[in-house]
Design a protein that fits this description.
The protein is an alpha/beta fold. The chain has 20 helices and 14 strands. The structure holds nicotinamide-adenine-dinucleotide.
Length: about 450
């Protein structure tokens, strides 16, 4: 079976590599020459644990090219894994997906199944199929199947090789059978449904998770006000199997390439059909506020950032990825800079990408210790292991004022108390905050 994958981002490349790991020959196509050159040399253009190793192991079954015509011409299956970013109005921008559909229509010379892995609004697969069939350069049969992706960045390889489920949305049995053959070596439950339901499963899953995060964040905000502890609350809730203990960590909100855009896109789509998705709207609104929670907290300790040395630990939207899309740092750091802060920032893998956005004005550090040196306040935006494992005494030892605002609840309160630092986190009592306000 000849397989091509359009797009070599977090989804496309991981899909291609994991299909190769399961015995398929795969040609990965991208429009970005630099990315393709890197991949040909066995280098992954994105940071994703384990990806490069499996990529190198399977090089004999993997091809990388910008020549889409050759890749699609005689492919049996073509996966579409290009981006579907957010438009200004919140709807999904489908220009990359439609661009690939056009290229496929012009290129294919064999019957083939086009598999849409990109997250697309309900009804898009129908449009893609019409578009391809209407523009075919050769007289061939083409079927479009929806096969949404559920991987999470940071665990993408594991999530793909040991998928929680494989969702196949088809209108003709023939396309479903081809996809079952593609996934024959994967040990995961398969849900076969129609295309619209498959598209909806993806949005409903992501929006539900976003809602769960926003819910626990709101409860955390209330815990702070009334003196309860969100971690104990979440622990107590999580034992209920109907609730579960995952995605119950209060913090400074969700970011990344999926939850923000997928909540807005579904809300937009519902509005378009004259229906208000109130729960999803609430998740979006809560998250917008939550992103600025640490900045608001910082006002308890300093009126302004002017002249302050600010240490930032973590730049990416979550650990395990170099992706900055919708990372809280993108809105918080500019506020600090505008207010006159001297910002020092550390991240184990995100600095190069952040430098592309802020090439000047930030002092990038390659160790946590260097970042904390002489700082007046420290913001933790990403719960990297290096941060969680840091000896808390370092804050008092290295900072001018050991005021630590933790947006990810990396430390327990007892340790923070013992370390004699001012420690303000999410949904929990602030430690030594009185002492700090006198600084
Ligand atoms: P990405 O932005 O990381 O990668 C997209 C890639 O497509 C880029 O390398 C780009 O150069 C390439 N591209 C654009 N046009 C092309 C064309 N005509 N031919 C070939 N390549 C082309 O995107 P991503 O994060 O992998 O997301 C892809 C899709 O998967 C989105 O719809 C997203 O919502 C969905 N998704 C993402 C994740 C995630 O965690 N990132 C998880 C599940 C689903």
């Amino acid at each position: 079976m000849k397989i091509a994958v359009a797009g070599t981002g977090y989804v496309g490349l991981v899909t291609g590599v994991c299909l190769a790991e399961n015995g398929h020959s795969v040609t990965c196509v991208d429009i970005d020459d630099d990315k393709v050159a890197l991949m040909k040399a066995g280098i992954s253009p994105i940071y994703e644990p384990g990806l490069e190793e499996i990529m190198i192991k399977n090089m004999k079954r993997l091809n990388f090219t910008t020549d889409y015509k050759r890749a699609y011409k005689d492919a049996d299956v073509i996966f579409i894994g290009v981006g579907t970013p957010e438009k200004k109005d919140g709807s999904a921008n489908l220009r990359f997906v439609y661009g690939v559909a056009e290229q496929i229509a012009k290129s294919i010379e064999n019957d083939c199944v086009v598999v849409v892995k990109s997250t697309v609004p309900i009804g898009t697969n129908d449009k893609i199929e019409d578009m391809i069939r209407e523009n075919l350069a050769h007289d061939v049969n083409v079927y479009v199947a929806s096969n949404p992706e559920f991987l999470a960045q940071g665990t993408a390889v594991r999530d793909t090789l040991y998928a929680s489920r494989i969702v196949i949305g088809v209108e003709e049995e023939i396309a479903g059978n081809v996809l079952k053959e593609v996934y024959r070596n994967f040990d995961a439950p398969i849900v076969v449904t129609n295309r619209k339901s498959a598209e909806m499963i993806k949005y409903a899953s992501n929006d539900f998770l976003a809602l769960k995060i926003s819910f626990i964040n709101e409860i955390g905000n209330l815990c702070e006000i009334i003196g309860a502890n969100i971690e104990d609350v979440a622990l107590g809730m999580g034992y209920d199997g109907r609730i579960g203990n995952r995605f119950l960590n209060a913090g400074i909100g969700y970011g990344g390439s999926c939850f923000p855009k997928d909540t807005k896109a579904l809300h937009w789509l519902a509005n378009f059909h004259d229906y208000e998705l109130k729960t999803v709207k609430a998740a979006i609104d809560v998250n917008e506020n939550q992103k600025l929670k640490l900045i608001k907290k910082s006002r308890k300790y300093f009126d302004s950032f002017k002249g302050l040395n600010v240490a930032v630990l973590g730049l990416t939207f979550k650990p395990g990825t170099d992706d900055l899309r919708e990372a809280p740092t993108l809105v918080n750091i500019p506020i600090m800079l505008e207010d006159g802060a001297n910002v020092r920032a550390w991240d184990p893998v995100g600095i190069e990408n952040f430098k592309k956005i802020h090439p000047i004005g930030i002092d990038y550090c390659y160790s946590i210790e260097e970042t904390l040196k002489d700082a007046d306040i420290c913001f933790i935006f990403t719960e990297w292991d290096e941060v969680k494992e840091l000896d808390l005494s370092k804050y008092r030892e290295l900072m001018r004022n050991p005021v630590v605002l933790d947006g990810r609840n990396c430390y327990d309160l007892v340790s923070a108390k013992k370390a004699n630092i001012t420690y303000d986190s999410i949904g929990r009592e602030a430690i030594n905050s009185l002492e700090a306000s006198l600084v």
